[in-house]
UniProtKB/TrEMBL annotation:
<feature type="compositionally biased region" description="Acidic residues">
    <location>
        <begin position="1"/>
        <end position="14"/>
    </location>
</feature>
<comment type="similarity">
    <text>Belongs to the peptidase M24B family.</text>
</comment>
<dbReference type="Pfam" id="PF05195">
    <property type="entry name" value="AMP_N"/>
</dbReference>
<dbReference type="GO" id="GO:0016757">
    <property type="term" value="F:glycosyltransferase activity"/>
</dbReference>
<keyword id="KW-0479">Metal-binding</keyword>
<keyword id="KW-0328">Glycosyltransferase</keyword>
<keyword id="KW-0378">Hydrolase</keyword>
<dbReference type="Pfam" id="PF00557">
    <property type="entry name" value="Peptidase_M24"/>
</dbReference>
<dbReference type="InterPro" id="IPR001131">
    <property type="entry name" value="Peptidase_M24B_aminopep-P_CS"/>
</dbReference>
<feature type="domain" description="Aminopeptidase P N-terminal">
    <location>
        <begin position="52"/>
        <end position="191"/>
    </location>
</feature>
<dbReference type="GO" id="GO:0004177">
    <property type="term" value="F:aminopeptidase activity"/>
</dbReference>
<dbReference type="InterPro" id="IPR000994">
    <property type="entry name" value="Pept_M24"/>
</dbReference>
<keyword id="KW-0808">Transferase</keyword>
<dbReference type="InterPro" id="IPR036005">
    <property type="entry name" value="Creatinase/aminopeptidase-like"/>
</dbReference>
<feature type="region of interest" description="Disordered">
    <location>
        <begin position="1"/>
        <end position="30"/>
    </location>
</feature>
<dbReference type="InterPro" id="IPR029149">
    <property type="entry name" value="Creatin/AminoP/Spt16_N"/>
</dbReference>
<protein>
    <recommendedName>
        <fullName>Xaa-Pro aminopeptidase</fullName>
        <ecNumber>3.4.11.9</ecNumber>
    </recommendedName>
</protein>
């Protein structure tokens, strides 16, 4: 990795570009500074078309405008975050900002100014790097270091929103009058500029509205979710093909294999991949992925590709590493499969959101009573939640631009709400018998099974977006054999 730039020409009118303490060059000569200003071709992009979701983002902004008439609304993308010293984490724009604009660049801010009966939207962005003051080659975020960014004119064409220089926004917001709301937690500078104009309660109302707006997906979003799932299916196939290499190394080989598919076909993974072999499958969010992969054990792979528009899949399969379930593994796996079948069947328009969870939990409770692990009757087990020692988590969640989407929605519209066509959720029951659980037979200990699919609520029922990945135990074995060739 090249050293970052260390120096800058200074002028009386401008603050100097930050210098690197231990850079190798002491300064920039006047001749070099002048030389770097000229001799560059015009690279303005003049044939740009709007981003594919431009019509959808416009409709979303219109709905937001209607909900908060007469109020200034400020939605930041966020800023770069330091990973260590002078390196940053890969940037991911706030979901609220990306949902409303389609833009994904750091430091961006969407502002809706009250005008007439509605609002006038402006997207505030960093313009192209300045070539007059040397920013483009001397600043650590200059274009010769991190890549070209769109001009404001280009941004207007792409996103269908008038664009302005974000560096002027904080000052303008300090002088602004009238009611204002901001989405908090992404841009400290913007929040500081509004500190005497906003309240936590009013800002939370804005955040909640934007979360609930995503509960029902439009056609563009459904298409993106299907793309994410299709890439994820291919990622699972990639993993099955290299299980022998994972056995020779560790769970990291599985994580890296899936990541390759996510980066080639999408933007990234939608969340940290869980590549949990053997007893690690009993740790719900096992993301260390540094353990051994052994023939005869199960692999619980929970992973999802995120598309370039930030929509993520979330799929889990529990696979026999050697391609064949043992008798006890199959017994536990088939119980989870039966519970998932019941859960998926309960996903219907008009059904309560909780119904699919209750249906899956009932099946698992019945199995635990049948196996003698907990005393019945089943109604007693469910009333007291005794099955939770081994089922642990809820049976699913909303899915979209966040893997746990719509998390700020009100309880009455989410968990206590009713399913509608266009909602997309996961159904993911599991059974987890910890390696140190003395209340279960020794042969169960260290076995964890979860099966998870992404389910779209339709007008007449549901559609399993991830149905291309086999789920039934015999079909899983046949599929693995086929993939391995």
């Amino acid at each position: 990795m090249a050293e970052e730039p260390s120096d800058t020409p200074e002028t009386a009118e401008e603050e100097p570009i930050k210098q690197r303490k231990n850079g190798l060059y002491p300064g920039v000569s006047d001749e070099l500074a002048e030389n770097m200003k000229s001799g560059w071709a015009d690279t303005e992009l003049r044939d740009l078309r709007p981003v594919p979701q431009a019509a959808e983002t416009a409709a979303r902004r219109a709905a937001l405008s209607a909900r908060f008439p007469g109020e200034r609304l400020v939605i930041p993308a966020g800023n770069l975050k330091t990973r260590s010293n002078d390196t940053e984490y890969a940037f991911r724009a706030s979901v609220e900002y990306a949902y409303l604009t389609g833009n994904q660049t750091e430091d961006g801010v969407l502002v809706l100014e009250p005008k007439g009966e509605g609002h006038e939207a402006t997207i505030y962005l960093l313009p192209r790097s300045d070539r007059e003051n040397g920013e483009f080659w001397l600043d650590g975020q200059g274009e010769l270091w991190v890549g070209r960014r769109h001009s404001l004119t280009e941004a207007e064409k792409l996103y269908g929103i008038p664009a302005s220089d974000v560096r002027e926004l904080a000052g303008a917001l300090r002088e602004a009058t009238g009611p204002v709301r901001v989405v908090r937690g992404y841009d400290a500078g913007i929040e500081a500029a509004l500190t005497d104009k906003v309240t936590a309660e009013r800002d939370e109302e804005l955040r909640v509205f934007l979360s609930e707006a995503r509960l029902v997906k439009d056609e563009f979003e459904i298409g993106e979710l299907q793309k994410a799932v299709d890439s994820t299916v291919r990622g699972f196939e990639d993993v099955v093909k290299v299980l022998d290499k994972a056995e020779a190394t560790s769970e990291r080989y599985i994580e890296g294999t899936f990541f390759l598919r996510a980066r080639v076909e999408g933007n990234d993974v939608g969340y940290g991949t869980i590549a949990a072999a053997g007893p690690h499958a009993c740790t719900l969010h096992w993301v260390r992925n540094d353990g051994p992969v052994r023939s005869g054990d199960l692999l619980l792979l929970d992973a999802g590709v995120e598309t370039h528009t930030y929509y993520t899949a979330d799929v889990t399969r529990t696979l026999p590493i050697n391609g064949r379930f043992s008798e006890v593994q199959r017994k536990i796996y088939d119980a989870v499969y039966e519970a998932q079948e019941a859960g998926i069947a309960a996903v219907q328009p008009g059904a309560k959101y909780r119904d699919f969870h209750d249906a899956a939990q009932r099946v698992l409770a019945e199995k635990l009573v049948e196996w003698g692990l907990v005393e019945g009757p089943v109604e007693r087990v469910l009333e007291l939640g005794l099955q939770r020692r081994w089922t642990l988590h809820g049976t699913g969640h909303m899915l979209g631009m966040d893997v746990h989407d719509c998390a700020a929605a009100r309880t009455e519209t989410y968990v206590d709400g009713v399913l509608e066509p266009g909602m997309c959720l996961t159904v993911e029951p599991g059974l987890y018998f910890q390696a140190d659980d003395l209340t279960v037979p020794e042969e169960y200990r260290g076995i964890g099974v979860r099966i998870e699919d992404d389910i779209l609520v339709t007008e007449d029922g549901n559609r399993n977006l991830s149905a291309a990945l086999p789920r039934r135990s015999d079909e899983v074995e046949a599929w693995m054999a086929s993939v391995k060739g």
